[in-house]
Amino acid sequence: MVHRISLVGETFVFQDLKHILASASPLRSGDELAGIAARDPVERVAAREVLANLPLRHFLTEAIVPYETDEVTRLIMDSHDEAAFTPISHMTVGQFRDWLLSYAADTSSLEKLSPGLTPEMVAAVSKLMRNQDLVSVGRKMRVVSAFRNTQGLPARLGSRLQPNHPTDDPDGISAALLDGLLLGAGDAVLGINPASDHIGRGMDILWRFDDIRQRFDMPVQSCLLTHVTNTITMIEKGAPVDLVFQSIAGSEQANSGFGISLGILSEAWQAARELNRGTVGTNVMYFETGQGSALSSGTHHGVDQQTMEVRAYAVARVYSPLLVNTVVGFIGPEYLYDGKQIIRAGLEDHFCGKLLGLPMGCDVCYTNHAETDQDDMDTLMMLLTAAGVNFLIAVPGGDDVMLSYQSLSYHDILTLRSVFGVRPAPEFEAWLERMALVDGTRLRMNQPYALPNFRAGS
Question: Chief location of this protein (predicted)?
Answer without folding.
Answer: other
